[in-house]
Amino acid sequence: MMQKLRRSPALMLGLAGLAFFVVLGIVAPFIWTDRAETLTDQTHLAASAEHWFGTDALGRDIFARTMVATRLTLLMCLATTAIAAVGGIGFGAAIWVGGPRVRALGQRVIDVLISYPSVIFALAMVAILGPGVGTSIVAIGLATCPAFARLTTNLAASIAGRDFVSTARLLGVPPSRLLRRHILPNIAEPLLVLLSVAFTVSLKALSGLSFLGVGVQAPDYDWGAVLHKGLEGIYLNPWPALGPSLVIILAGLSGGLIGDGLAAAVNPAAGRKRGYRAKVEALTSVPAYDAHDEDALAVADRLSVVLPDGTRLVDEVSFAIKPSEVLGLVGESGSGKSLTAMALAKLLPDDLTAVAGTLKVGDLDLNGRPPAGRLATEIGIVYQDPSASFNPTLKLGGQLTETLRKHGGASRAAAAEQAVGQLAAARVTLPEQRLKQYPYELSGGMRQRAMIASALLTSPKLLIADEPTTALDVTVQAEVLGLLREANERDGTAILLISHDVGVISAICDRVVVMYAGRIVETLPIERLRAGEAEHPYTHALLAATPTLHSPVDEPLSSIPGRPPHPAGRPAGCAFASRCPLARQQCHDELPVLTVTDTGATACHALHWDKEVLA
Amino acid sequence: MTDAIQKAGAGTTTVLEVQDLDVAFGKHHVLKEVSLTVPQGRTLGLVGESGSGKSTLAKAIVGLVKPAGGRILLDGVDLTHTKRTVAVRRRVQMIPQDPYSSLNPRMTIGETLAEALDPRRASVKAHRTEIEALLNRVALDGEVAARHPQEFSGGQRQRIAVARALAVRPALIIADEVTSALDTSVQAEVLGVLRELRRELDLTMLFISHDLAVVRHVCDEVAVLKDGELVELAARDALFGEPRHPYTRLLLDSVPDGGPLRTAG
């Protein structure tokens, strides 16, 4: 695990600081004990070259005492952290294993304990047990336990919901092993972060106790005790107090930096570069197939979607959508189909950049900075998850009419009237009442219909539907697909339908674009897809792998061996070559370009071999 | 309706028998008098839309949900009235839906399988040959035992989950939407492995899915659930060829099956 942690500067600095103090703690008593503990008559001296932090009331060198105190301080911190971690994780794990009732009770106990400040708790312990090294350690250690216990139970609860834990239970894995092998290893990182924080907190608390005079007692001394003595003459002679304070701050800072560094290292989202724009690379190829179609409603010419490091998640795709056409975009996960669609709606995440020769919808140039109002009204979007696409805290009416009111200049009443009309057209039951309802009051199917109604309200030129039926039941799916087709036939709205499901695409599209590993491999009219007459081997394989209600069931479905290449490791040649039954050396070496065929376009070398053979 | 199937299955031993099963969450009845049987070596498909109760039925069989009425018999033993000891629990194994959360990321494939073979000690060394045989069963190389789940694709992970279920030699395997998180090409790979295993090992399986086309490719008989009620139970060809219940017909008509949309209703 450790070798996978990113070494941030904070982490390295913190570890260096801690290492320094550990070495100091080991060697200091051998070097400075004499000077630190020998009584002399040079009392209350100010800081000087000979006594860096001055001397105390008994003539002892305070710098030497601070150095020697390092060992005891660190050992106490270590013991305290150990008690806190072992006790807290043990308690947290025990109540998690104990079953639901013990867990509920235990969590309330932790809540109560955590609400008491640890120093107050420690002071009470001191009052009972009397001050001393042992009391301080036990008191602060116990007071820090609840933090570990709470984190352990909360994290364990989140891991316990995962399938591998329930499966292990079903297999008969005993609770102790479940905890040891399944739960604790998966929550180790956050606990490690807490460990370094607990070290810093206990340093502070232990020093605080000694500083108040209720911690370490003479003749022992830790940093807090040295500080306590140094404070006596602070107005005349500040160094006896400043010196040990400085050391406490430095040690605390080291612990804090380690905690910060660890937290950043275990959180994959932290430290990701944001807002960085990828370098726009020169476009390589000539404008491709059907991208120069004059009549097209939407055109994407050599569109790439690029990560900040230059990796192309979508690699120079070109396609056009004709007016009132329903274009399907089909591909498996990682094919780049959704990113392509989102680039067309200018809705890519911040760290992705779209680069294209031409990218336009109607006369709206998406390569520049199109006005937000026109973007919002001319492109409608339907997302996959109807439960996530509405704001759950706002009534539907406001959300449905927002674009109309803001960008369409409609009055509230007029907008509401239009919304009711669209909802009715989308066969949402009781459309007037729906405007006053919250999204959760609608079923998933009703919500998706409302989403489509909302997207159509502004009479967009293009409707982008990204897996609009994937989260829906099959009967509702059929209805929603029917609605989309209806909107297309009624208003002539062009639709870009993205789906992983060849069946869904076949149901309502006019033409289909097949994507694989960020590239377009084939475009073909829907009749050919329905008939299973694809040109590209990938499209063929995809169709053969799709179970249907009519294909023969006595032979197994053919699967595609291997898996798609990672976008960063896309080969120079055809991305499908390594899985393709037809592949020859040429396929691995040369990138096939989309070549216009009788009915569509295909990017496959094999098509030309056939012609060679025929000729 | 169910009688015909039970007669058809006569002669072979019944592994799972669910009799008039009722499950209620508070006042809400999730399953209403559901009865079905799965004979040895057969696969019963359980289809239905969200809220139909198909996952609840699986949970009741596994013991995660307590039935309000009816009985669940496994090899003739009533599970609803016996204590679910480790031995009883191991007789039914579940292959979960999501292969990305069903394997512990901190354990190697070998450790995961060893744990299935021996949940107490889970020694990889002691079970080396068995682990290798299990991996070979699902068309994976024995060497992968030393690797972690993160290194595998979704389909490979799902095959490992299948191997884990097989390790126990359960009387019944419940496959709960095992391909719905997978891509089409990968789905075919997992269905292929299940098909092979059924033939070779004479597996008895309850195959839960919302996808009728997938069920058609895997199952011998199909049960259709709607709102907690069993509306139709028939042999595969009968159900897909001549569905009797209007709801079954609606389901079949709604499947986008490669052709243009048939306007439902």
From TrEMBL, chain B:
PROSITE patterns: ABC_TRANSPORTER_1 (PS00211), ABC_TRANSPORTER_2 (PS50893). Signal peptide: none annotated. Pfam families: ABC_tran, oligo_HPY. Residues 16-252 form the ABC transporter domain. InterPro entries: AAA+_ATPase (IPR003593), ABC_transp_ATP-bind (IPR050319), ABC_transporter-like_ATP-bd (IPR003439), ABC_transporter-like_CS (IPR017871), Oligopep_ABC_C (IPR013563), P-loop_NTPase (IPR027417). GO terms for molecular function: ATP binding. Belongs to the ABC transporter superfamily. This is ABC transporter ATP-binding protein.
